[in-house]
Design a protein that fits this description.
The complex is a heterodimer of chains A (about 500) and B (about 90).
Chain A lengths: L8 E2 L6 H4 L4 E2 L3 E6 L5 H16 L3 E5 L4 H10 L4 H6 L3 E5 L8 E3 L6 H14 L3 E5 L1 H5 L5 H18 L2 E7 L13 H4 L2 E10 L2 E11 L8 E7 L3 E4 L15 E2 L4 H6 L4 E2 L3 E6 L5 H13 L5 E5 L4 H10 L4 H7 L2 E5 L7 H15 L3 E5 L1 H5 L4 H16 L4 E7 L9 H6 L5 E10 L2 E11 L9 E6 L2 E7 L3 E2 L7 E2 L6 H14 L1
Parallel strand pairs in A: 3-8, 3-9, 4-5, 4-7, 7-8, 15-19, 15-20, 16-17, 16-18, 18-19
Antiparallel strand pairs in A: 1-2, 9-10, 10-11, 11-12, 13-14, 20-21, 21-22, 22-23, 24-25
Chain B lengths: L2 E7 L4 H17 L3 E7 L4 H6 L7 E6 L4 E4 L5 H7 L10
Parallel strand pairs in B: 1-2
Antiparallel strand pairs in B: 1-3, 3-4
The chains are: A alpha/beta (about 500), B alpha+beta (about 90).
Chain lengths: ~500, ~90
């Protein structure tokens, strides 16, 4: 087996796939892309060619066996791919191998696909193409009944493509989600590489994944990788960019938005950190977000909020109630608010939208309120992938992020979201209701702060017209975090406390 | 009426030779007047492109219209006659 270092790679035209394939498809080889109806095979093939042509100037030949070139041009245009432009420039050639019912061909005796191969060869010679796609093998071959001939010709086609020195993608239908790769049972053997595209129903949400099944002699990442299809881009693979934990950690501290919190953290939050605040509904998570964002935006740092629970106007009204003028910050250009209902898009699309907004606005602070709202639109696995994708993306961009999670019960208890994300975060804060002597008060604590010591006390906080005020630690109360506050026996009543204080004074 | 037939083959192979021989024999037997043009797709891929040829050997009955097509080495000439709708002098056996 050849070492992968010696094999030259061709970028695939798919963001993320190059990462999975450690550079791209091996040059001059054939790749089978197999999937059920609607899995995105045609788009995959189009993108492989289009990306290569646009990004690297590689000329392409697209053999279409199912949809006419006109249909493909239209579909490509809806993805933002201008094929006509490339055709005019001689960079893109269609070979129309669609079936015309008016031209029925009865088969009498032995035949082969020499003419198709000659046509591809001709187009490759004429344009100097280095990329070829055939979409799809099934549509081409199932017109011919003789399975033996079909298998032999499939092998010949694959060999011919290798002989031309082109890097090729052959798509193929799969009738089942698992089991046979193709109809003829030999598809995976005639091609060097096999990719599987899946479009599955996972806990009531549709989920697209890509898997590299076989990559002859070449190292690649294994497993299923979620992807989405976006207008203007095509397939976007949500790879776990940077999950190898090589992201550089900065020691720079930033203002958290609250002076008291900075003190509790021994100097503020870290510049490139992902923080989570968890708490029951109404404990003040959005308030903490407001303080965090204002702490940046009012000092000229570009700050971006993704609100999945409250509308823009609600968010602005809340901020105004705490003495923060978000409208003014937005007008100054240091604040941007993206408010969207979680149900508007799939989780994958939300992730891509977040990435785009971050790339476009280039913020140094990002807040996501709340993760729990996003959690309800996806399966557990989908949500976990989303979190990994999101946190690794953020850490690679030297951004301070604050995310919120809603606890399941009013008093204490951890949220589902928290269980998923706690290992991915650098800092965890909790907001809790504390019942004391028939009164509901609120507590705040920093549970974890990676890379620094921090104040481990549970502080009481209050909210007034100027925002959040973190006060002194609760004394004489235990069990706040577990949601079951208990007053110490020796501090059972305020009266006792007060009288003992005087006792102390007397003794001093 | 002149029958115009285009036969697309790929190179000088036994399969091409069989297709040419079978088609010629059928035409000679059944037609008084015909033109048979043999096109090698390896020499003229552009013509294969124009006529949307995928599999070879392929015969296209160009005239009289409408077009009729058949693929293979035409091991059974009677089936070929019916596939491309050639008139037969004595009916098919």
């Amino acid at each position: 087996m050849t070492s992968s270092a010696a094999i030259s790679k061709v970028p695939t035209g798919h963001s993320g796939l190059d990462h999975i394939l450690r550079g791209g498809f091996p040059r001059g080889r054939t790749t089978l892309v197999s999937g059920t109806a609607g899995a995105g095979k045609t788009i995959f093939a189009l993108q492989f060619l289009y990306g290569g042509t646009r990004e690297y100037g590689d000329a392409s030949v697209f053999v279409t066996c199912e949809e006419t070139p006109t249909t493909i041009r239209d579909n490509a245009a809806s993805l933002g791919f201008d094929l006509e432009r490339l055709e005019i420039d001689g960079q893109w050639t269609f070979i129309d191998a669609t079936y015309d019912p008016g031209q029925e061909e009865e088969v009498i005796g032995a035949f082969d696909f020499s003419a198709l191969i000659a046509r591809i060869q001709h187009a490759v010679d004429r344009t100097g193409a280095t990329r070829v796609a055939i979409d799809s093998l099934g549509a081409l071959l199932t017109r011919y009944e003789d399975a033996h001939t079909v298998r032999r010709e499939m092998l010949r086609l694959s060999n011919a493509l290798r002989g031309m020195g082109v890097t090729s993608v052959l798509t193929n239908e799969r009738s089942e989600m698992s089991g046979e790769i193709g109809r003829f049972g030999v598809e995976e053997y005639v091609c060097d590489n096999v990719l599987i595209l899946r479009y599955t129903l996972d806990e009531e949400s549709r989920r697209r994944t890509l898997e590299v099944l076989k990559m002859r002699g070449v190292d690649h990442l294994t497993g299923e990788f979620p992807f989405t299809i976006l207008p203007g881009e095509g397939i976007v693979i949500l790879t776990l960019e940077g999950t190898n934990l090589t992201a550089e950690s900065s020691t720079e501290r930033i203002h958290s938005g609250l002076v008291e919190l900075d003190e509790m953290c021994n100097g503020g939050m870290f510049r490139d950190s992902v923080s989570l605040v968890s708490g029951a509904t109404g404990t003040g998570k959005t308030l903490l977000v407001t303080e965090f964002i204002d702490g940046g935006a009012s000092r000229g740092e570009r700050s971006l909020i993704f609100s999945f629970e409250e509308s823009r106007s609600q968010l602005f009204r809340n901020a105004a109630g705490w003495g923060r003028d978000f409208a003014a910050l937005e007008a100054e250009g240091t604040l941007r608010v993206e408010a969207i209902y979680p149900e508007m898009r799939s989780l994958e699309d939300h992730l891509v939208a977040i990435m785009h907004a971050v790339e476009e606005y280039q913020p140094t602070r990002v807040a996501i309120d709340s993760l729990s709202a996003l959690e309800r639109i996806a399966s557990q696995r989908g949500f976990r992938e989303f979190l990994i994708g999101l946190t690794s993306f953020i850490k690679h961009r030297q951004i301070a992020a604050l995310m919120t999670a809603t606890a399941r019960t009013l008093l204490g208890g951890e949220s589902l979201t928290e269980a998923h994300i706690s290992t991915l975060t650098d800092m965890i804060m909790v907001l809790r209701y504390v019942e004391m002597a028939g009164e509901v008060r609120r507590g705040f604590a920093v549970l974890k702060l990676r890379g620094s010591t921090h104040d481990k006390m549970i502080h009481e906080f209050t909210v007034d017209g100027s925002g959040m005020r973190i006060g002194s630690p609760f004394r004489g109360v235990t069990g706040i975090l577990s949601g079951n506050p208990q007053h110490h026996a020796e501090a059972a009543t305020d009266l006792e406390l007060v009288s003992r204080m005087f006792d102390d004074e007397d003794g001093a | 009426m002149t029958f115009v037939l285009h036969l697309y083959v790929a190179g000088d192979t036994p399969r091409s030779a069989r297709a040419i021989a079978n088609l010629r024999a059928l035409c000679a037997r059944e037609l008084d007047d015909f033109e048979l043009e043999v096109i090698d797709v390896l020499q003229r891929p552009d013509l294969a492109e124009q006529a949307s040829v995928l599999a070879t050997p392929l015969v296209i009955r160009v005239e009289p219209g409408p077009q009729r097509r058949a693929v293979g080495d035409f091991s059974d000439v009677n089936r070929l006659a019916s596939a491309i709708d050639l008139p037969t002098k004595e009916g098919l056996s």
